[in-house]
Amino acid sequence: MPTLTIALDGRELQRLPLTRPRTTVGRRPYNDIVMEHLAVSGEHAVFVLQPDGRVQVLDLNSTNGTYVNGRAVVSADVGPDDLIEIARYQLRVIDDTPLPPTATAAAPPPALAQPARQARLEVLDGPAAGRTVALTKAATTIGKPGVAVATLTRTGADYVLTQAAGEHPATLNGQAIGPSGAPLHDGDVIALAGTRIRFVLC
């Protein structure tokens, strides 16, 4: 909405939205904008709001004139870059329309937490063939004491197989386990004390 700012000697006095087709300026009290200064005529000027939103200032045959950007005018289109002077008053037409709220990018949805992977052992042969053991503890010991014992240790989401005791070492996928152990992967087969056990991670 076009708005008229009125200042006296550089000090802003008033802001008036130009909502009507005509806004009059002068010294007489019936004007829309009253300027009580002897250099201002009784009916000095009028601001006209055009249907297309443009604003014109018309001088009403005043004694001391209406100036736009330092030049005396009878009529002129005025905008934010124009300085209108009437006696010691300075006027500007500004667009005081509030800006629309700035659109903000929608925050991405929070990442879904990945479910913890579950591990288990499946006995493949021997008397306990078909048995399944869930690995729910940080460390699980398997085997036969005095024959062969191994430990499955969970570190975070990973599992490591280490030889614990016994005369017959455990193997992993047919390979001997080193002193520091061996990482386990889904489908690995552990052979221990004559029994094969599959490691399942899902």
From TrEMBL:
Domain of life according to the entry: Bacteria
Annotated signal peptide: none
Residue ranges constituting the FHA domain according to the UniProt record: 23-73
Protein name, UniProt field: Glycogen accumulation regulator GarA
Organism: Tepidimonas fonticaldi
